[in-house]
Structure formats: structure tokens, C-alpha cells
Amino acid sequence: MISSIIQTTDRGLYCPAGDFYIDPRSPVDRAVVTHAHTDHARWGCKRYLAAQRSEHLLRMRMNHDAEFQFLPYGESIKIDGVDVSFHPAGHMLGSAQVRLEHRGQVAVVTGDYKLGNDPTCESWQPLSCHLLVTESTFGLPVYRWEDEQTTADAINDWWRESRDEGKCCVLYGYAAGKSQRLLASLDPSIGPIYTHGAVEKGNEAYRKTGVDLPETTFVGSLERKHDFTGGIVVAVPSANGTPWLRRFGRTSTAMASGWMAVRGARRRRAVDRGFVVSDHVDWPSLLKAVELCDPETVWVTHGYSATVARYLQELGREAHVIDSRTRSENDEDGAQASGVEGEGS
Q1: Average pLDDT of span 181-185
Q2: Where is this region: Disordered (predicted)?
Q3: 226 and 311: one domain?
């Protein structure tokens, strides 16, 4: 697909007037990055431009010789005649929508985003535009998220019940973004909070950026005989079913993911509980975002893009499916999210 501002290429979304790529699939000279997850911030580019709030997360995982430039939300920079600015996407710390303006035309690339409140990142903001590029990870009517506080209460109730049964809870969430959101929702009065090493690494970047998280203890800093009864361990999904779990004694396990909204997902993940927690828009939020941005054209990528595009067309909007990027093994529906770059689900 081609617009007057951006076009799709085998390397991802490209802005020819500015000669840069947005979330490129492979190393390029100049990359504009929406957030620090590995399927958006590719290693190996020469120069990176990103939102200032993502600095600590990006520096944590990128090559040291890369050239970075960070821009505060809402501040514009001109790249070869194209005005580029970052605006909150609500997906995770530092996540941004990229707004491009060139010769009176405005395009907005959402990256990954969600609506609603999240104490660990800035909330999504609607941006008027001619072209909107939206993800559709959960672009089916079945995906509808509960109120954040309702889900947080359910997680804390599960932890409290497990503690009273003499168990240790193990809650799985991706290392950067999802885990910190989960930590912020936990009630520390119930018991001690422990973390997997990859999660603690993400915590460090969040704390350096000024995000308030409850006190946590890295599991690896404790003796092998430590008693974890009554506590909760926030870990990455790839730890499930591994020998690492043995040190916690009797456990109750749970997965926090948008996929838990579908019957059978918990069974496939082999966990005791499933909590519907996603850092992506659900069906009604996606439609609301399009309505608020009110673009002339919508490009839909990743997920149920054909379904979303067809529905928008039925509503009278011009909508097209594009293939702007490939997903990494650390995607929400991947099982290998073992590092800090693992994508939020």
C-alpha cells in the first residue's frame, strides 16, 4: 500500500520523504521506533529515534554502538521536510504513536496500543489524521476486557486464597510491560513479592524512569532453602513447567494474557488460573479509537486484520489490510518470552 506519506515495503513501513522506517523488520540506517519490544525495536539499526520515556528500556537491550535520539511526547522534529512527533500509546512504558505530517497530510502509526488506565505508562491519546495504521491483535468481538480494578481484585483474591492454603503463587506475564503492570496491581499486604530475573531487569528500567512499583525481591538473590509460602512470584511464561519452579514448593500458577478470554487457552498453557490482562486494544476499544481519530483511510495490520478491515468497510470507512511487520518469538501468542524484550500480551 502507498500513501503520500508512508508505504509498505519488505522492510516494513517506510517514509520516502524522510527516508526512514517505522519499526523496521530488519536493520536499516534510520529507524523510528514505537516502543522497546523486540518485534518493534530491531537490533542492528544505525540510528534510532524514539520517545524519551522509552530510553532506559531501549538502552538495556540495544547494541551499545547504536546512535539514539529521544524526543519528549508531543515535541516535533523535522526530518527532511517531514514533521515527526511521538504521542502516548498506552501499551507500555515509553510506547508511542508516531505522527507524521508532510505537505498537509497527516499519518498516525499506532504501533501497539491500548485504551484505559495503566499506572505504569501514559494513557493513549486520540490523534486526528488522514491515515491511521492500527494493529488488530484482538480484532474479534469475543475479545472484550473487564474493568482493570475488577481483574486486579481477582488476582489478589487468588493470591490471598493460595496463601491461606499454604501455597506460593506464580503469575506469568511478559518481562517488560505486562509484568510491571501486574506488579502495580498487587496488594503487598498479602505477602512478599518475588520476581524472575528477566522481570527484575525490566523493573530496574521502569524504576529508573520514575515508575512507582511495589518492593520486589529477585528470586536468584535468595538461598535455595528460602521459604516462599504465602508469597507471589512474577515470572516470564517460558519458566512454566521448568525445574526452576521446584524451589517454590507447593504452587498455584496463573497466566495473565488477553488469550485467556478464549476457552481452552488456560488448558493449553497448563496453568491453574487464567486472568484476562492485555496491553492491546480489545474489539470495542479498537473501534472507539478509529472513531475518535476519524481518519479518511485505515490500514489494518497483524492479527485479525481482514475481519477488522471488512467491518470498518461495512461502517462506510475506507480500510485496507497491510503486512507491515512480522511478529517475533516474543509475541503475545509466542511462548518464548524469556527476556526483557518480550512483548506484552
Answers
A1: 98
A2: 322-345
A3: no
Give the CATH number of the domain where residue 189 resides: 3.40.50.10890
**Vertex 125: Cα angle to 67 and 140 (nearest 5):** 100
Confidence of residue 342 (pLDDT cuts 50, 70, 90): very low
Same structural domain, 29 and 121:
yes
Same domain? 139 vs 286: yes
Q: How far is CA 62 from CA 9, 37, 55, 65, 343, in A?
A: 24, 11, 10, 9, 15
What torsion do the CA atoms of 180, 256, 304, 340 make, to the nearest 10 degrees? 40
Please give the tally of structural domains in the chain: 2
Tell me, yes or no, whether 129 lies in a domain. yes
For residues 205 and 74, give the distance between their C-alpha atoms in angstroms, rounded to a whole number.
22
Q: Are residues 197 and 298 in the same domain?
A: no
| Beta-carbon contacts of residue 226 (< 8 Å; ≥ 6 apart) | 247
* SS3 at position 45: coil
What's the confidence (pLDDT) of residue 345? 56
Cβ-based neighbour number of residue 38 at 10 Å: 20
Q: Give the pLDDT band (50/70/90) at residue 338.
A: very low
Same domain, 286 and 137: yes
Do 198 and 84 share a domain, yes or no?
Answer: no
CB 109 within 8 A of CB 133: yes
> CB of 43 within 8 A of CB of 63?
yes
| β-pair type (232-235, 168-172) | parallel
Q: Could you tell me which residues come within 8 angstroms of residue 159 by beta carbon, excluding any fewer than 6 positions away?
A: 169, 171, 186, 187, 190, 191, 232
Residues 138 and 23 placed together within one structural domain of the fold: yes
pTM over 0.85: yes
pLDDT, mean of residues 53-63: 89
Does the pLDDT of residue 177 top 90, yes or no?
A: yes
Give the neighbor-by-neighbor strand order of the sheet with 96-102.
76-79, 82-88, 96-102, 105-109, 131-136, 297-303, 318-321
User: Does pLDDT of 332 surpass 60?
Assistant: no
Terminus-to-terminus CA distance in the chain, angstroms? 28
Q: Provide the domain limits for residue 92.
A: 7-143+279-321
